[in-house]
Amino acid sequence: MTAHFQIDAATVRHMAFLVRVGIRDEEAEAFSPQLSAIIDYFNLLNEVDTSQVPPATQLPGLRNILRPDEVAPSMARADFLANVPCREGKFVRVPAVLSEE
Amino acid sequence: MGPDLINLTIEEAHALLVAGKISSLELTQAALERIRQTDSQVRAYVTVAEEQALEQARQADERLRSGRNVTPLTGIPFGVKDCISTRGIRTTCSSRILENYIPPYDATVIERLAAAGAVLIGKQNMDEFGMGSSCENSAFFATRNPWNLERVPGGSSGGSAAAVAARQGLFALGEDTGGSIRMPAGFCNVVGLKPTYGRVSRYGLIALASSFDCIGPMARTVTDCAAVLQVIAGHDPRDSTTWNEPVPDYTAALKQPVRGLRLGIPKEYFVAGMEAGVEKALQEAMRTLEKLGLTLHEVSLPHTKYALPVYYLILFAEASANLARFDGVRFGYAAPQASDVIDLYLRTRRDGFGKEVKRRIMLGAYTLSAGYYDAYYLKAQRVRTLLRQDFEKAFAQCDALLAPVCPTTAFRLGEKTGDPLSMYLSDIYVVATNPAGVPALSLPCGFSADMPVGMQLIGRHWSEAVLLQIGHAYQQETDWHLRQPPLD
Hints:
Helix content of chain A is 33%, strand content 4%. Chain A is mainly alpha-helical. Chain A has a domain at 9-46: Histone, subunit A, CATH 1.10.20. Chain A starts with 8 loop residues before the first helix and ends in a 9-residue tail after the last strand. By secondary structure, chain B is an alpha/beta fold. Chain B has an eleven-stranded mixed sheet, with helices on both faces. In chain B, α10 (307-322) packs across α12 and α10 crosses α13 (374-395). Chain B is globular. The mean pLDDT of chain B is 96.
C-alpha cells in the first residue's frame, strides 16, 4: 500500500543544509539508506484515521503563563561572556553575515 | 571508614549521619574512592568534581553538627547526568560540541539539592544529547553495565544507572525523554522514576524534546527515590511548564496500604518477541503483587504500535529546533577560521555533532519542512492525541498499569549500533508515556540469564505517590533490588 520511500544522496545533502550541518559525500551516501528506512517506518501512521482528531499541542491545563514585566538580576555580563568562543571586549565576534556580492 | 559505607541507602545513611556515627566527609570520600577503584571498568563519569564535593561534605557536616536545617538528603553524595547544568562544572551532554562548556548557572534541581545539603560528586556519561538507548552514542566513551562489562547499561541515562548500580554515589538524577531513565534502570537493577511532565523543573536542563523531557531520581530503593523526588519536585517560575499542583509528602505516602489497588495489564505489551526470562520475571511479579492484595486485570492500549513512530517523529522535530542553538557563536565548540557565518555553522556542527545527532536533526527538519509538515509532524501530533486518550480510558478502570521495561535484558556493546532503526525498536515499552506526559516507575523484578529485568508501573498524571506506594510494598516483599553486581 505504501511505496518504499527513498531519500537519495541529493535529498540528504538538502536536509543537511536545512540544519546547517556540513556533511561529506560519503556520509550522504551512508545516511541515504538509513534515513530512507526511518521515514518509511513513519508511514505506518497512515494506517490511523485522524480526520476527526485534533493535534495534541500543549499538555492540557497550561495557558498563557504571564508574569509582571519587572527588571530583576539575570546574569553578570562576565559570566555570559566567559563561554564565548570569539570575543572582542564586551562583543561577541562572528564572521561576516553578508558578503560584498 | 566502615567497609559498608558504599552500600548504604539514603535512608540508612541519614540515620547514621544524624546519630553522628558517620560523617558526610567519610561517605563522600568512600564514594570518590569507589569511583577511583571501579570507574576504569564501568566508565560512568565524564567529570568528577572532587574538591567541590569534599567542600560540600564539610559544610554538610557542620550543618549536621549544628542540628539546624537538616534534611533527609543532607550530606548524601550523588551524581547527575551530564545534560543538567552545574555552575562552574563542565557540562557536556557527552558531545564534542560542549566538551569544554562550563555553565554559568545551576539548574533548578541542582539548586534545590544544594539547599537540602546533598553533595554533588560528578557528571555522568550519556548518549550524546540524550539520543540513544545504550550510552554507545557518547562522543567520549561507552559506559559499561556493572552486571556484565561486555553489555550496555542502557540509555540515555546509562552513566547514571551504572553509577548507582556500582555504588558510585547513593543516588543520581537522570533525565527521561522516551525511556531514558527507566530503560537503563531496568538494565542495571536500580529504581528510576520518570515523573509527570511538569512535576520537576526543566530550568537548566539542556533540552532535547521540550514537550517530552523529564528529570527524575535514580537510586537503589523506592524509598530513596521518594526522598529525592520530594526535594526536586514543585512549581518553578523559571520553567513555565511546571504546574502549581501541590507536592504531596511522598515519603509518608509510601506507607499507605496497597490492598485493593487495581493494576491494569496492557495486552498489547505482552505479545511475542519478549525474551522468555523477561516474561517469566514479569509473570512472577504479577503473582507477588496479587499476593500483596492488588487486583490485576487486562486492559487495552489500542494505539500502542503507533507509539514508536509518534514518539520519534515529534522527538526529531523538537530536537532539531533545540539543537539549532549550537552554532559556535555564544558558547561551545567553534570551527576555526570560518570564511563566513554559514561556513561557521556548517563546520562547527559537522565536527561537533556525532552521526546519530546529525541523523535525528536532519530528519526533524525534513519532517517540519514545507510539503512534509502535515504528512509527518502534524499527523504524529494527531496520533499523539489518541495515545493520550488510550491512557485516559485505561485509567478509568485501574489505578496503575504494569508493563515490562524492555523486551530483552541488556544487549552486548556493538550489537545494535549498525542499524539505527533496530536500536529505536528496543524502546517499544517506554516511549508511549512521554507524549502523554504520564509518570512511570521502573524497578527491579528479577533476573534472566544473570542479567537484571525491570518492570514498569505507569500512572495517571500526578500519581507518583501511588506508583511509589506500590513499588515500596513490592520491595518489602522481594529482594531483587538488594543484589549487588559482581564488581570488585
